[in-house]
Recover the amino acids of this structure.
């Protein structure tokens, strides 16, 4: 079962200051998903040593667009002064969505952008004193999360079961070798909602598993995912059906066959994908 995670911040406004509950811990990741504004000159992400936006910066990540060559500056602000800058290329494109992941290890922050390795930034301030994230600049934020890595196959409990109005969010990337992306809403006797995207056949299959057998498949053409590209899936539970949205577009409606929604208490993810975050 998945470890209970801090609830993410959804569509926060900038400037944004938020807590990292329990402080940074080895093995956990900070995840920022957003979109760089078309006319952006720079934005910045800061991991703050302490509990407010005025504290020292253990890690400052600053994409810059106003200079001839776009790049990212990394630094630490301590004792009222900046340290030595480190730099990398900037994979964040103005006007385009991005995902930034910061994995905490004993020696360094391992930083990836859009699923690709960017750099290791060695600790200059002890990471276990970092309790705050601060984001500002010319960027729209979709999501900020703090978690242990999600691993496929993935399974987590739905506390209290499903109810009309309940939404489930999934963020990830299908790999270049991906054959399928699969989501299941389960109860103790079977699967209430099975959603399966098959890349080779370019189709989506939805079904219900009850009494030891599958029901009639509902098929539709066109897989809504692109290999190696970030997706956001929202599965909405309504009174009579499920709605599935991919990157904000409705792609599927599936009428309830199993109607005891309170009994649906497990969510699963399978397939060949890099799973970033699940929020139930």
């Amino acid at each position: 079962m998945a470890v209970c995670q801090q609830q993410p911040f959804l569509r926060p406004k900038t400037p944004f200051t938020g807590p990292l509950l329990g402080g940074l811990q080895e093995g956990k990741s900070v995840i920022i998903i957003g979109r760089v504004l078309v006319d952006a000159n720079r934005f910045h992400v800061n991991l703050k040593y302490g509990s407010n936006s005025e504290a020292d910066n253990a890690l400052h990540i600053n994409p810059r667009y106003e200079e001839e060559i776009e790049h990212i500056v990394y630094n630490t602000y301590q004792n009222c002064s900046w340290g030595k800058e480190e730099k990398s290329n900037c994979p964040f494109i103005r006007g385009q969505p991005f995902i930034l992941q910061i994995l905490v290890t004993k020696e360094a922050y391992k930083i990836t952008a859009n699923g690709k390795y960017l750099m290791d930034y060695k600790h200059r301030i002890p990471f276990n004193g970092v309790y705050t994230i601060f984001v500002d600049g010319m960027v729209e934020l979709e999501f900020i999360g703090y978690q242990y890595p999600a691993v496929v196959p993935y399974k987590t409990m739905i506390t209290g079961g499903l109810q009309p109005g309940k939404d489930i969010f999934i963020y990830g990337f299908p790999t270049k070798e991906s054959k399928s992306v699969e989501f299941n809403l389960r109860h103790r006797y079977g699967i209430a909602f099975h959603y399966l995207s098959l890349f080779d056949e370019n189709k989506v299959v939805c079904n219900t598993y009850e009494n030891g057998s599958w029901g009639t498949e509902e098929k539709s053409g066109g897989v809504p995912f692109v290999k190696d590209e970030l997706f956001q899936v929202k599965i909405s539970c309504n009174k009579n059906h499920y709605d599935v949205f991919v990157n904000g577009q409705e792609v599927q409606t599936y009428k309830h066959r199993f109607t005891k929604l309170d009994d649906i208490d497990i969510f699963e993810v399978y397939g060949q994908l890099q799973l970033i975050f699940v929020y139930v």
Notes: Residues 135 and 218 are 43 Å apart (CA to CA). The two ends are 13 Å apart (CA to CA). The mean pLDDT is 94.
